[in-house]
Design brief:
alpha+beta; 2 strands; 15% strand; elongated
Length: 82
Amino acid sequence: MQIGATLTSKGQITIPKEVREALGLDAGDRVYFRVSEGGAVMTKTPDFIDLGGSVPVPPELRAVPWKKIREEAWRRATARNP
């Protein structure tokens, strides 16, 4: 699908109805633009709740509190980047 839109003097566009419907966009939804080689791709930013269960958790981390996981990740990140 390729559908055009017009840029206003304020740098705004109206996302055409066909595109909103295809992406399941509603008022208040956020979108993401990826720009490369003179073009751009727009995608709907997934709702955080929709991502639940989409990332596999290793068995050894399933019972570990989230706070401890974050602290360990921060410790490792700062140890690599003094």
